[in-house]
Design a protein that fits this description.
six-stranded mixed beta sheet, single chain
Length: 479
Amino acid sequence: MTHALLAIDRLNAFVKLLPHASSRLPVKSESAKAVEALRASDAAIALPVEAVLDAVRSRLVKVSSAGTGQYLRSDLRASVWLLWTEKQPLADLPGLVEAVWAQAYKSNATAHALIEAWLRAFSLENPSVGPTGMAIRQLLVMRPNPRLESWRDADRRVELFDTKEGPRKLARRIMLGPEALDAELSAVGFDDPLRAAGNYMRAVQKEIVAKASVSLTRSDADRTLKRILAFLAPQGSLRFAEPKSRGEMARGLLRPWLEAEDEPDESIRFQIQDFLLEHLDDPRLKPQRWQEAGVHATNLMRRWLTRASLKAFFGLISDHALDAHWRYREAFWSACLEKDATIEAWLALGSRIYASARAVEDLKRAFARLDGASGDQAVLLLRVKGLVFCEWSHNGKLRAWPADWSNAPQLGRARYTRAELTGKGLPFPPSARFGSNGSSDGMGLSHIGSDRNQWQGSAAELLARRTQIVLGPKDWWPR
């Protein structure tokens, strides 16, 4: 049996020796009236500096080896920060756990420090976490001191010291609770910045992102989402910003729509999309920040951004170009996106549209400046598998290049010139079915005969030959 398991057995045995008490905490006593006055002294305890902990560790090991049990009170209080460390945890040091608990029953400071250390080091993978939580709950029952009343309140509210139910119930109150989010966190002591970034809250966040898939498809999804996002990024900064946590967060927020055919309500999509762009950036520009999110979540986000670019592009063009063909073009490329969710889009906007695009919420920073063209012109770049398409506004032609050609435009740049987007590309094949002659010179396909499917038929023929995406009039006809 390992030292860690022996320590757990000793902890369980110690709990059994305590005077019997109801597992339910007593109704709040009169002493609770003093809690507000004590709140100022109830702040989280800062972790001692490493040099101090190293010295404490050395003395504790020396006393344990000697078998005298003569620990300094100050060392026992500080030892709580060393019980569950990743490097050389002292929870299995013979005699130490018993000495800590004995002092916690006599000392408010030691009891308080023990609770703080447990919250900070919380991990369901550590086998001693569960027994320690039960022992803390027993201590709170047996030691009805006003200084510990706030922790009794927290345990009544969400079963804080139950290692499984605590994180679940707190996560539920954060998402669905009747009180404001700040009030919910304050009620259990997690408005304190030190506790807010500890491992207990990390476990709560895991519960939240796991349950988001159910909560975000209900009728009250908007309220729930706002609370979730406020929890994940208090004051605009992620609570846990390391790559693994970012990936779990992205998957949790996007999970309801990873397999579903339905799209979220527009307001829900906007909020999630904007939040992920803010904290994970655009996967088209910084794919490395999305690696932990996984392929499926990343592809869904890319699809949302492509849809947003298409919608914003055609909306902007409708304000700047008198062109009856645009509704046919929008319908055609929207149909193409329905067939292949991996399509990516990028916009290049003339000076006047570029300035107005800054106010378009759906675009965020996902557009480029178009130089050498009229200020009210714009270009939609689309990467469809191995091809790059370029749609010009007004009466501009549709162009296409293999993505590996040297003169094929690269998506994601900040600036383009007219010359870069009008180079020679692929010919568009004719379509006898729709009476289209196509375009054999590689200089682009004119949008002729939109209402007779002429240019669409030629563009669809090129897509079918080069990308195996098959479109017909039922797909591309405007609805």
